[in-house]
Amino acid sequence: MTIDRDGLADFLRRRRSVLQPEDVGLPRGSRRRTEGLRREEVAALCHMSADYYARLERSSGPLPSEQMIAAIAQGLHLSVDERDHVFRLAGHRPPARGASGDHITPGMLRIFDRLQDTPAEIVTELGETLRQTPLGVALTGDTMSRSGPERSIGFRWFVDPTVRDLYAAEDHEFLSRLWVSGLREVMAVRGRDSRAGHYAGLLLERSDEFRAIWERQEVGLRPRETKHFVHPELGDLELSCQTLIDPVQSHSLLVYTAVPGSESHEKLQLLSMLSPRVMR
After folding, report:
1. Within 13 Å, how many C-alpha atoms sit on residue 10's CB side?
2. Are 133 and 254 spatial neighbours (Cβ–Cβ below 8 Å)?
3. pLDDT at 22 over 90
4. pTM of whole model > 0.85?
5. In the structure, what pLDDT confidence band is assigned to residue 280 with cuts at 50, 70 and 90?
6. Hey, what domains does the chain have and what are their CATH numbers?
7. How far is Cα of residue 46 from the mean position of the Cα atoms in its chain?
8. b/e map 189-202, b = 16+ CB within 10 Å
9. Sequence-ordered list of residues with C-beta below 8 angstroms from that of 127, at least 6 positions apart, any chain
10. pLDDT digits (tens, 9 = 90+) for 137-173
11. CB hemisphere CA count around 188 (13 angstroms)
Protein backbone atom coordinates (compact mmCIF):
# COMPACT_ATOMS: atom_id res chain seq x y z
CA MET A 1 0.00 0.00 0.00
CA THR A 2 1.18 3.53 -0.77
CA ILE A 3 0.36 6.76 1.02
CA ASP A 4 -2.32 9.05 -0.39
CA ARG A 5 -0.91 12.34 0.87
CA ASP A 6 -3.66 14.56 -0.50
CA GLY A 7 -6.40 12.23 0.65
CA LEU A 8 -4.86 12.01 4.12
CA ALA A 9 -4.47 15.79 4.34
CA ASP A 10 -8.07 16.42 3.24
CA PHE A 11 -9.41 13.89 5.72
CA LEU A 12 -7.41 15.29 8.65
CA ARG A 13 -8.42 18.87 7.88
CA ARG A 14 -12.09 17.90 7.67
CA ARG A 15 -12.05 15.91 10.91
CA ARG A 16 -10.28 18.76 12.73
CA SER A 17 -12.82 21.30 11.45
CA VAL A 18 -15.85 19.43 12.80
CA LEU A 19 -14.33 18.51 16.17
CA GLN A 20 -15.22 21.03 18.87
CA PRO A 21 -13.18 21.76 22.04
CA GLU A 22 -15.89 20.38 24.32
CA ASP A 23 -15.84 17.13 22.30
CA VAL A 24 -12.32 16.43 23.55
CA GLY A 25 -12.53 17.89 27.05
CA LEU A 26 -10.99 21.28 26.21
CA PRO A 27 -12.43 24.63 27.35
CA ARG A 28 -13.94 26.93 24.73
CA GLY A 29 -12.39 30.35 25.10
CA SER A 30 -14.53 33.46 24.63
CA ARG A 31 -12.31 34.70 21.79
CA ARG A 32 -12.23 31.48 19.77
CA ARG A 33 -12.79 32.11 16.07
CA THR A 34 -11.34 28.91 14.65
CA GLU A 35 -13.82 26.49 13.08
CA GLY A 36 -13.26 23.29 15.01
CA LEU A 37 -9.94 22.64 16.75
CA ARG A 38 -6.66 24.42 16.15
CA ARG A 39 -3.77 22.44 14.70
CA GLU A 40 -1.72 22.85 17.85
CA GLU A 41 -4.63 21.51 19.92
CA VAL A 42 -4.88 18.40 17.76
CA ALA A 43 -1.11 17.96 17.90
CA ALA A 44 -1.21 18.08 21.70
CA LEU A 45 -4.03 15.52 21.80
CA CYS A 46 -1.95 13.28 19.51
CA HIS A 47 1.25 13.77 21.54
CA MET A 48 3.26 15.10 18.59
CA SER A 49 4.72 18.43 17.52
CA ALA A 50 2.45 21.02 15.93
CA ASP A 51 4.90 21.32 13.02
CA TYR A 52 4.75 17.58 12.30
CA TYR A 53 0.96 17.55 12.31
CA ALA A 54 0.75 20.72 10.20
CA ARG A 55 2.94 19.17 7.52
CA LEU A 56 0.60 16.19 7.29
CA GLU A 57 -2.29 18.56 6.66
CA ARG A 58 -0.19 20.27 3.97
CA SER A 59 0.50 16.93 2.20
CA SER A 60 4.18 17.10 3.06
CA GLY A 61 6.61 15.83 5.67
CA PRO A 62 7.89 12.30 6.39
CA LEU A 63 5.85 9.16 5.96
CA PRO A 64 3.85 8.72 9.17
CA SER A 65 4.46 5.49 11.06
CA GLU A 66 1.69 3.18 12.23
CA GLN A 67 2.24 4.50 15.77
CA MET A 68 1.78 8.08 14.58
CA ILE A 69 -1.39 7.26 12.68
CA ALA A 70 -2.78 5.39 15.70
CA ALA A 71 -2.07 8.45 17.87
CA ILE A 72 -3.78 10.74 15.35
CA ALA A 73 -6.82 8.46 15.13
CA GLN A 74 -7.15 8.49 18.91
CA GLY A 75 -6.48 12.20 19.24
CA LEU A 76 -9.14 13.06 16.66
CA HIS A 77 -11.64 10.75 18.38
CA LEU A 78 -12.15 8.70 15.22
CA SER A 79 -14.53 5.78 15.06
CA VAL A 80 -13.07 2.36 14.29
CA ASP A 81 -14.16 2.68 10.65
CA GLU A 82 -12.59 6.15 10.42
CA ARG A 83 -9.41 4.84 12.04
CA ASP A 84 -9.16 2.06 9.47
CA HIS A 85 -9.70 4.60 6.67
CA VAL A 86 -6.92 6.90 7.85
CA PHE A 87 -4.57 3.93 8.19
CA ARG A 88 -5.21 3.02 4.55
CA LEU A 89 -4.74 6.63 3.42
CA ALA A 90 -1.36 6.60 5.19
CA GLY A 91 -0.35 3.40 3.37
CA HIS A 92 -0.72 1.04 6.34
CA ARG A 93 -2.82 -2.02 7.01
CA PRO A 94 -5.46 -1.23 9.68
CA PRO A 95 -4.92 -2.82 13.12
CA ALA A 96 -7.06 -5.72 14.29
CA ARG A 97 -10.48 -4.83 15.58
CA GLY A 98 -12.12 -5.93 18.80
CA ALA A 99 -10.56 -7.15 22.02
CA SER A 100 -6.96 -7.10 20.83
CA GLY A 101 -7.17 -3.43 19.82
CA ASP A 102 -6.27 -0.41 21.94
CA HIS A 103 -8.29 2.16 19.98
CA ILE A 104 -10.88 3.75 22.27
CA THR A 105 -14.21 4.54 20.63
CA PRO A 106 -15.37 8.20 20.48
CA GLY A 107 -18.37 7.60 22.75
CA MET A 108 -16.20 6.14 25.49
CA LEU A 109 -13.73 9.02 25.16
CA ARG A 110 -16.48 11.63 25.36
CA ILE A 111 -17.59 10.22 28.69
CA PHE A 112 -14.02 9.86 29.94
CA ASP A 113 -13.13 13.46 29.02
CA ARG A 114 -15.89 14.69 31.33
CA LEU A 115 -14.49 12.85 34.35
CA GLN A 116 -11.30 14.81 34.90
CA ASP A 117 -12.29 15.63 38.49
CA THR A 118 -12.88 11.93 39.31
CA PRO A 119 -10.56 8.91 39.62
CA ALA A 120 -11.29 6.93 36.46
CA GLU A 121 -9.55 4.73 33.91
CA ILE A 122 -10.22 2.86 30.69
CA VAL A 123 -8.90 -0.71 30.61
CA THR A 124 -8.93 -3.66 28.23
CA GLU A 125 -10.49 -7.00 29.11
CA LEU A 126 -7.00 -8.09 30.26
CA GLY A 127 -6.67 -5.20 32.73
CA GLU A 128 -4.34 -3.13 30.52
CA THR A 129 -4.75 0.59 31.25
CA LEU A 130 -5.34 2.73 28.15
CA ARG A 131 -6.29 6.03 29.79
CA GLN A 132 -6.31 7.49 33.31
CA THR A 133 -7.66 10.75 34.63
CA PRO A 134 -5.20 12.80 36.70
CA LEU A 135 -7.00 11.68 39.86
CA GLY A 136 -6.84 8.11 38.60
CA VAL A 137 -3.05 8.43 38.45
CA ALA A 138 -3.05 9.94 41.96
CA LEU A 139 -5.05 6.97 43.21
CA THR A 140 -3.33 3.98 41.61
CA GLY A 141 -0.14 5.41 40.09
CA ASP A 142 0.74 5.71 36.41
CA THR A 143 -0.26 2.36 34.91
CA MET A 144 -0.44 3.58 31.29
CA SER A 145 3.30 3.60 30.62
CA ARG A 146 3.80 -0.15 30.93
CA SER A 147 4.67 -2.30 27.93
CA GLY A 148 4.35 -5.98 27.05
CA PRO A 149 2.60 -8.38 29.46
CA GLU A 150 3.22 -6.02 32.40
CA ARG A 151 0.61 -3.70 30.93
CA SER A 152 -1.91 -6.07 32.55
CA ILE A 153 -2.50 -5.57 36.27
CA GLY A 154 -3.46 -9.25 36.48
CA PHE A 155 -0.06 -10.21 35.12
CA ARG A 156 1.78 -7.76 37.40
CA TRP A 157 -0.19 -9.10 40.37
CA PHE A 158 1.68 -12.41 40.16
CA VAL A 159 5.15 -11.21 39.13
CA ASP A 160 5.56 -7.96 41.09
CA PRO A 161 4.73 -8.21 44.84
CA THR A 162 4.69 -4.40 45.24
CA VAL A 163 1.50 -4.19 43.18
CA ARG A 164 -0.43 -5.73 46.07
CA ASP A 165 0.57 -2.95 48.48
CA LEU A 166 -2.23 -0.79 47.09
CA TYR A 167 -4.91 -3.29 48.10
CA ALA A 168 -6.10 -4.38 51.55
CA ALA A 169 -4.36 -7.59 52.63
CA GLU A 170 -7.64 -9.35 53.39
CA ASP A 171 -8.63 -9.00 49.72
CA HIS A 172 -5.45 -10.45 48.22
CA GLU A 173 -6.62 -14.06 48.12
CA PHE A 174 -9.89 -13.16 46.40
CA LEU A 175 -8.18 -10.84 43.92
CA SER A 176 -5.71 -13.58 42.98
CA ARG A 177 -8.60 -15.93 42.22
CA LEU A 178 -10.45 -13.14 40.40
CA TRP A 179 -7.55 -12.43 38.01
CA VAL A 180 -7.06 -16.12 37.24
CA SER A 181 -10.78 -16.70 36.69
CA GLY A 182 -11.01 -13.69 34.38
CA LEU A 183 -7.96 -14.68 32.35
CA ARG A 184 -9.30 -18.21 31.92
CA GLU A 185 -12.63 -16.87 30.62
CA VAL A 186 -10.98 -14.45 28.18
CA MET A 187 -8.69 -17.19 26.86
CA ALA A 188 -11.69 -19.48 26.31
CA VAL A 189 -13.33 -16.78 24.16
CA ARG A 190 -10.22 -15.55 22.30
CA GLY A 191 -8.35 -18.85 21.99
CA ARG A 192 -5.04 -20.23 23.23
CA ASP A 193 -3.16 -18.28 20.56
CA SER A 194 -4.52 -14.97 21.84
CA ARG A 195 -2.79 -12.46 24.09
CA ALA A 196 -4.70 -13.97 27.00
CA GLY A 197 -3.28 -17.39 26.15
CA HIS A 198 0.22 -15.91 25.96
CA TYR A 199 -0.13 -14.27 29.38
CA ALA A 200 -1.45 -17.50 30.90
CA GLY A 201 1.50 -19.46 29.51
CA LEU A 202 4.00 -17.00 30.94
CA LEU A 203 2.36 -16.99 34.36
CA LEU A 204 2.20 -20.79 34.48
CA GLU A 205 5.96 -20.77 34.07
CA ARG A 206 6.74 -17.90 36.44
CA SER A 207 4.27 -18.09 39.35
CA ASP A 208 3.62 -21.03 41.68
CA GLU A 209 0.61 -19.22 43.12
CA PHE A 210 -0.90 -18.64 39.69
CA ARG A 211 -0.31 -22.26 38.71
CA ALA A 212 -2.03 -23.54 41.89
CA ILE A 213 -5.10 -21.34 41.37
CA TRP A 214 -5.21 -22.14 37.64
CA GLU A 215 -5.52 -25.82 38.49
CA ARG A 216 -8.77 -25.13 40.38
CA GLN A 217 -10.55 -24.44 37.06
CA GLU A 218 -12.56 -21.58 38.63
CA VAL A 219 -14.69 -19.35 36.40
CA GLY A 220 -17.45 -16.86 37.00
CA LEU A 221 -15.84 -14.74 39.72
CA ARG A 222 -16.78 -11.06 39.44
CA PRO A 223 -15.25 -7.92 40.99
CA ARG A 224 -16.81 -6.66 44.19
CA GLU A 225 -18.46 -3.27 43.92
CA THR A 226 -16.52 -1.91 46.92
CA LYS A 227 -12.74 -1.85 46.58
CA HIS A 228 -10.45 -1.44 49.58
CA PHE A 229 -7.34 0.56 48.70
CA VAL A 230 -4.37 1.28 50.95
CA HIS A 231 -3.05 4.55 49.57
CA PRO A 232 0.58 5.34 50.54
CA GLU A 233 -0.33 8.88 51.57
CA LEU A 234 -4.04 8.80 52.40
CA GLY A 235 -4.27 5.38 54.03
CA ASP A 236 -7.37 3.19 53.84
CA LEU A 237 -9.97 4.04 51.19
CA GLU A 238 -13.29 2.25 50.57
CA LEU A 239 -14.40 3.14 47.06
CA SER A 240 -17.28 2.02 44.89
CA CYS A 241 -16.30 1.06 41.35
CA GLN A 242 -18.88 1.64 38.63
CA THR A 243 -18.16 0.04 35.25
CA LEU A 244 -19.26 1.00 31.75
CA ILE A 245 -18.43 -1.58 29.05
CA ASP A 246 -17.91 -0.79 25.36
CA PRO A 247 -19.05 -3.91 23.49
CA VAL A 248 -17.29 -2.86 20.28
CA GLN A 249 -13.75 -2.91 21.68
CA SER A 250 -14.34 -4.86 24.93
CA HIS A 251 -12.98 -1.92 26.92
CA SER A 252 -14.24 -0.93 30.36
CA LEU A 253 -14.49 2.53 31.89
CA LEU A 254 -13.95 2.26 35.66
CA VAL A 255 -15.10 5.18 37.83
CA TYR A 256 -14.23 5.29 41.54
CA THR A 257 -16.45 7.14 44.02
CA ALA A 258 -16.99 7.25 47.79
CA VAL A 259 -20.13 7.56 49.91
CA PRO A 260 -20.72 11.30 50.60
CA GLY A 261 -19.88 12.23 54.16
CA SER A 262 -17.70 9.18 54.73
CA GLU A 263 -14.05 9.31 55.72
CA SER A 264 -13.11 7.88 52.33
CA HIS A 265 -15.06 10.69 50.62
CA GLU A 266 -13.09 13.28 52.56
CA LYS A 267 -9.82 11.58 51.66
CA LEU A 268 -10.83 11.41 48.01
CA GLN A 269 -11.09 15.20 47.96
CA LEU A 270 -7.40 15.34 48.88
CA LEU A 271 -6.29 13.38 45.79
CA SER A 272 -6.21 16.52 43.66
CA MET A 273 -3.56 17.95 46.00
CA LEU A 274 -1.22 15.01 45.47
CA SER A 275 1.36 14.88 42.72
CA PRO A 276 0.79 11.99 40.31
CA ARG A 277 2.86 9.08 41.51
CA VAL A 278 4.43 6.32 39.49
CA MET A 279 3.69 2.79 40.63
CA ARG A 280 6.66 0.47 40.52
Report:
1. 6
2. no
3. no
4. no
5. very low
6. 5-95 (1.10.260.40), 106-273 (3.30.450.180)
7. 15
8. ebeeebbbbebbeb
9. 152, 153, 154, 155, 179, 182
10. 999 999 998 889 999 999 999 999 999 999 999 999 9
11. 10
